[in-house]
Amino acid sequence: MNQQNPAKGHPSQDLAAPDGQAGVPTHFTDPGHPEHQPRQSDLHPAANKRAERQVVLLFAVSVLGTIGFLVAYFAVPPGETVASMRQSNLLLGLGLFLGMFGIGAAVVHWAKSLMNSEEKAEDRHTLRSSDETRAAAVEMLREGAQDSAIGRRGVLKGAMVSALLLAPLTVVVPLVGNVGEDWDVSKFKSTMWRKGMKLTIDPSGRPIKASDLTIGSVFHVIPEGLEDTEHPLDEKAKAVVLLIRLDPRDLTEAEDRKGWSYDGIVAYSKICTHVGCPVALYEQQTHHLLCPCHQSTFDVADGAKVLFGPAKRPLPQLPIEVDDEGYLIAQSDFTEPVGPSFWERLK
């Protein structure tokens, strides 16, 4: 039996293996843990104190982030314009990020810079531990608490408790704030589209003529006068439409919908019937309309029927026609609710 020098970290080898081949290793010595490298915080009290201040600062960042989230939630409501919604979401997102990031970074930095960093090994044991092992585990937990030095670091303990107590408010407050909101689902059964209302380009509001569309053209459409309504964003969320022109020979129309299009021009709700994402990716060659959120695919040439994905219903079609001046107008509102299904729908 020959062994190489364990001090050099080489395995012990049995050169007289059972099959007679020399040099085949049969077992290895335990190399042990690498030499412990002390950290600056282990060697210098000033570095240890500096690391503690950094952890406290990170917890303070979390506290300020949570407070900022609450201020933004109450003082900067979304409003009725895209700009105000963008500002509100930005401030809420920033506060939520700082609140969660501060806690996570503080805990990681605390563990890496202040707690015991020496590696330890434990022998494997049976699933049912003995009473002595359990007692040892309790002792190890006690040692871990001592390693964290939380009992001797009052400021750090206070910062951690404050951050942990405040952080859940970023979730609880919006949930409580939404209690009692309007749950009248009947509002989803109709939109602001009315007979004779012009189709206009989103967002400019310019009316569209049938001559503006060539085969393959796609327009994002809103009702005329949308900006003059009391809640334009709410109305737009329900009434937005995708207007597409196909070769009339490619259209497959049900008997009761043959008068809903005009010379190959069809209008469908832009709101996916799965969870309400904006459907806007149109493949001209296949006439497929794709939802980017969950890949529901609709056939524009055949009543916007579902070809693929989790959506269960075709996109509602807006009946259109042309007025005396050549402008595209609605014949009526949608004949069915737009968007995802809800509990009061019959189909």
UniProtKB/TrEMBL annotation:
The answer to whether UniProt assigns keyword rRNA-binding to this entry is no
**Primary localisation category:** membrane
Return the Basic and acidic residues bias intervals.
Answer: 30-42
Describe its membrane topology.
Multi-pass membrane protein
Q: Where is this region: Disordered?
A: 1-44
Asked whether the UniProt record includes Transcription regulation among its keywords, one would answer no
- Which CDD domains does its entry note? Rieske
Q: Which UniProt keywords apply?
A: 2Fe-2S, Cell membrane, Disulfide bond, Electron transport, Iron, Iron-sulfur, Membrane, Metal-binding, Oxidoreductase, Respiratory chain, Transmembrane, Transmembrane helix, Transport
Q: Which residues span the membrane?
A: 55-76, 88-111, 158-177
At the top level of its lineage, which domain of life is listed? Bacteria
Protein name per UniProt: Cytochrome bc1 complex Rieske iron-sulfur subunit
